[in-house]
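Hi L.,

You mentioned the student needs an example of a multi-chain input paired with its predicted structure. This one should do, with 416 residues in total across all chains.
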Amino acid sequence: KDVLKANNELAYSNRKLLVKHGIFTMNIMGAIGSGKTTLIEEAINALKERYRIAVIAGDVVAQMDASRFEKLGVKTVAANTGRECHLDAKLIERSLANIDLKDIDILFIENVGNLICPVDYKLGEHVRVVIVSVSEGEDTVLKHPMIFRTSDLAIVNKVDISEAVSADPSKMRGDINQLNPSIPVLLTSKNDAISIDRWIEYIESHLE
Amino acid sequence: KDVLKANNELAYSNRKLLVKHGIFTMNIMGAIGSGKTTLIEEAINALKERYRIAVIAGDVVAQMDASRFEKLGVKTVAANTGRECHLDAKLIERSLANIDLKDIDILFIENVGNLICPVDYKLGEHVRVVIVSVSEGEDTVLKHPMIFRTSDLAIVNKVDISEAVSADPSKMRGDINQLNPSIPVLLTSKNDAISIDRWIEYIESHLE
Ligand SMILES: Nc1nc2c(ncn2[C@@H]2O[C@H](COP(=O)(O)OP(=O)(O)OP(=O)(O)O)[C@@H](O)[C@H]2O)c(=O)[nH]1
Ligand SMILES: Nc1nc2c(ncn2[C@@H]2O[C@H](COP(=O)(O)OP(=O)(O)OP(=O)(O)O)[C@@H](O)[C@H]2O)c(=O)[nH]1
Ligand SMILES: [Mg+2]
Ligand SMILES: [Mg+2]
Ligand SMILES: [Zn+2]
Ligand SMILES: [Zn+2]
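Structure written out for the whole complex:
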């Protein structure tokens, strides 16, 4: 498909621009409500004293999540995707034009809630993170093999409510590693500080 | 867009075919893991003695949900959507060719988990149902106005875990009615038989 070819060429030029400025860029993907904004908020709070951070918040109504990031005092761009259920490289190129790239160390891109389309649309990111929450159901991983095969990190989130939704996070981790044996998998909960430390450590390991 | 125009023409002819056979058709939409399959299972168990039921289960890996319906003994078609994150009228037309329509009273169509694309792709259904679960976050309704404005019934599901995810189901119901004052809103939980009875009654009210 020509659309994807054009997108990936633009993603490549986004990437060159980000590398030129030494910006570490993460594409944060996951289903609607999986915890993308929450995990980015945790990362911002843990890292903003030592690193200069910007966020591009993508969604059909992008301002709602963008406001959560603005409250934390970091440069935020709301990228409205209109009727599209994924971000693309064009929207990222436009968003980057609104950021002073020489002032940034880390760029978080929050993608639209979706485990399907983001697989095909590269944006220019260094690292692709996929979040799946236990409340989506234990079989959600096996139902969406492609995104787990093509991501750099997987996070099983909201493990604090596993019992309430009768889901087993370690089975979900097993399913992820069955699809992609080399991908690291974190089990997190916003109510478990140690699990959040592991997420922050993963990010920092890319910054040295 | 010509794609949507062609889709809606095909949806119209699907609808004519279903009406000719007197089949009541519901398009069940909602985010990934919102409870679509569970609510259809409940409806099948409550109605299969009195009505002849078929299900079209749409997803990128459609067989997993299709197997859940097959276990209940109803005619099931797995509609694999490939890399698309929504069902379209073409895929429904093809699925209908695999069902003996003179033997059916009710057709459930489980759409792909997504609160965006299904808005634009009519399938030929009589009733459009949108499910949102409390675990997706309290603001999920306001973030996806279009699907709540264009559905016939809204369901706020998994209310049994509202406290665990700090979400208020009545606020979510308020948000739905703010976007669409005339849409009926049900609050359900698979663990609350009375709430499921309300869902069954809604379906039956269309069958008389
Ligand atoms: N119990 C529990 N709830 C969580 C956790 N992480 C996030 N949540 C809740 O889940 C809901 C959705 O979280 P968000 O961070 O907004 O999710 P999101 O993926 O950004 O959602 P969208 O941008 O709308 O797709 C909110 O109510 C959060 O409070 C967790 O670890 N445990
Ligand atoms: N606590 C609770 N869990 C529920 C409820 N309804 C569904 N679930 C759970 O939520 C998970 C997902 O339910 P499904 O019915 O498979 O959701 P779905 O919308 O069909 O999911 P996909 O087809 O993968 O998009 C399963 O683990 C269910 O057991 C409910 O009312 N309360
Ligand atoms: Mg978010
Ligand atoms: Mg399902
Ligand atoms: Zn999409
Ligand atoms: Zn789609």
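You could point out the following to them. Residues 188 and 195 of chain B are 5 Å apart (CA to CA). The longest helix of chain B spans residues 2-20.

Best wishes,
N.
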